[in-house]
Amino acid sequence: MNSLTTAFFIAAAMILFAGCYMLVRSHNMIRLVIAVEVVMKAVTLVLVFAGYSNGNTALSQSFIITIIVAEVVVAVVATGIAIAVYRNNGDLDLRKLNKLNG
Amino acid sequence: MQGILIFLLILLVMGSVACVMFRSKVKAAISLALISVILSIIMFALGQFWAAIFELSVCAGLVTVVFVCAVSLTRPDRHNQEVEEAYHKKVSGLPVFMVILGIGLMIILTMGNFDFSVTVDAAAQVRTFNDVFWNTRQADIIGQIIIILAGAFAVVILFKEGDKA
Q1: Is residue A28 classed as helix, strand or coil in its secondary structure?
Q2: Of A48, B61, B149, B165, which is the most buried if we count CB atoms within 10 A?
Q3: A93 pairs with which residues across the strands?
Q4: Yes or no, beta carbons of B80 and A91 under 8 Å apart
Q5: Does some domain include residue B97?
Q6: How many CB atoms lie within 10 A of CB B132?
């Protein structure tokens, strides 16, 4: 395995770890959405390298664009939910979302 | 070329660590935009121009604006600042974990006999992005349209004003 492949795998794994660490440690809703975005960056990085290494950049680009669209919609909707929760509760802490009646 | 890519990857990892560790959410959002910019430079370097343009315009631009707007709409109170302080203490060990993970992965990947070799498809290299995206991956385009419509519908529902009566 060449050094570039190793570097890409290690970088992707480290970014994935950082995003997951933020997901586990934070209770703030906006910070959680940012963590999901960080995890998605790791996935995009692996796809970029996969397309480069097997020479099929056209296919990898179409996958990346699909991922970007999904990522943006997730970010916008999740942020909207966070703002709606803030308007109702006055707080973004997930631990305080225990007053739901249903 | 290889040295530049490795340097960009190191910047990418440092940006992700900064994004996790920043106390301010605006700074975290800006460092997320920085990650997107570096990722788009890597895409440009590896010849994936369309994906790089999308990453730069949408992820580094639009998503950052959305996050900064969300942060400004949700003003932190005194309790929130205490929570942020507690969060910063919790994640202060992240750089150490990252270094251990990086060294561990480097040892595993260099010592182990992993074979990640791929067969290069000569026919696929000739195909252009336009050809693949518009002719081969049409289901993806329909999926993207549905996702965007669902997202727009969700935002309309979330921000709908209640009946005044």
Answers
A1: strand
A2: A48
A3: A28
A4: yes
A5: no
A6: 20
Strand runs labelled E in A16-100 = none
Contacts of B11 (CB under 8 A, 6+ apart): B38
Beta-carbon contacts of B113 under 8 Å, excluding residues fewer than 6 positions away, are: none
**Per-residue model confidence as pLDDT tens digits over B25-82:** 899 999 999 999 999 999 999 989 999 999 999 989 999 999 999 988 887 666 677 7
Nearest to B19 by CA among A97, A15, A5, A4: A15
From chain B, the residues in CB contact with A91 under 8 A are 77, 79-80
Contact: A55, B35; criterion CB under 8 Å: no
Q: Are A69 and B144 a contacting pair at CB < 8 A?
A: yes
C-beta separation of B80 from A95 below 8 A = no
Return the closest-CA partner of residue A1 out of B94, B81, B109, B8.
B109
Whole-number Å distance between alpha carbons of A84 and B155:
10
CATH architecture of A3-96: Orthogonal Bundle (1.10)
Q: Where are the domains of chain A?
A: 3-96
Final residue in a domain of this structure, among B74, B95, B119: B74
In the numeric block, which tokens belong to residue B84? 């942020």
Residue B115 corresponds to which amino acid? D
- Provide ipTM, 2 decimals: 0.91
Question: Rounded CA gap, B147 and A64, in Å?
Answer: 15
Q: Which residues pair with A28 in a beta bridge?
A: A93
Length of chain B: 165
